[in-house]
Amino acid sequence: MHSKKEYLIHGLLFLLTLITATLAGGEWVFGKSVLASGDQALTSDDFWKATAFSIPFIGILLVHELGHYFTSVYHKVKCSLPFFMPAWFGFIGIPSIGTFGAVIQMKGFVNSRKKFFDIGVAGPLAGFVVALVLLIYGFSTLPPADYIYQVHPEYADPNFQGYGDDVMDFELGSNLLFWGLGEVFADPERLPEMSEVIHYPFLFAGYLSLFFTALNLLPIGQLDGGHVIFGLFPRNHQWISLVTFTGFLAFAGMGFIKPNLPLEDLLLWTPIYLGYLYLCYSKSGLSVQNKLTIIFTMAALQYTLSFFFPLWEGYHGWLFFAFLLGRIMGVRHPEVSGYKELNTTRKIIGWIAILIFLISFAPEPFVFK
């Protein structure tokens, strides 16, 4: 049982996150801020309209965490209530989505591979089902094509030539599921470009929900996907996690050091990057020699590939998340006694979770140009 204080704290954080997500939704959907003035000011009417983004988005995160929570309760594993992390940086002019996500804290000992699997897979599956329904609804009920003129009236001007090179372009990177749902359920004449999806609250909320689902299903360490791999491959989960993490890190850092950089930049950033890579393997369980072998090999391969393919770039936005995985969470999974395999039903669910990851993951989820 939880205390009244816990219900109060977690409830207030949830409400605060809902508010910050609504403020962020106003910025993305309508291009308005509560701190702006004139036509760019977020009015009370705009705020309530922005809940069309925040309620489904935060609601799906809640469903995800409740999937973990109730499965933990079912297995009699003590855990916290869902802990929401509000995040809004409009007051300093930095865009955000209103939250860093949500987590539950496991307070009880998990002594079973089956329990790890059930608790890990329940969250992303529950959230995914709701996100799928939301996206199908969003694509099926798109507003008329001229809806975008309400947000960008300048688009209606036949003489409009764009914003110029001094304005940063932003668009969402597509994943297989988001693209496929648009092809099947959307009217082609109403289907927005990926650079305009942020102005469609249901689509944007659904896209972000897929982003968090795929992120959690990465088959690494103690992420939900790590629990799935731990259940499906009881003797091989450690090396699967390590190989996946290494590939993820290699993609994230591709192009960070490259031959066409000025010599002084190479001399500065190369040792910093190598130190970063070393820290990312802090909780890998590898020996110092193996860590050094991996990071020097990775950096050398990245540098060589950049020489022959100078246009190849990874997604540097993953570097911070890779650091959190390697340095804070670790790429290893707690062991349990025995190697008892999952039953057939759980194996099927595990492979469904892997499929969901593959169709929901966007290598470059947020593209800035």
Keywords, please?
369 residues; 2 domains; two-stranded antiparallel sheet; 5% strand
Write a structural description.
The protein is mainly α. It folds into two domains: 4-152 and 170-231 and 338-368, no CATH class; 235-329, no CATH class. It has helices at 4-30, 44-49, 51-74, 113-140, 148-151, 176-185, 201-216, 224-232, 237-253, 263-280, 288-308, 319-329, 344-360, and strands at 83-87, 98-103, 170-172, 366-368. Strands 1-2 form a two-stranded antiparallel sheet. α4 (113-140) packs parallel to α6 (176-185). The longest helix has 28 residues, at 113-140. It is globular, with a radius of gyration of 22 Å. The model has no long low-confidence stretch (mean pLDDT 91).
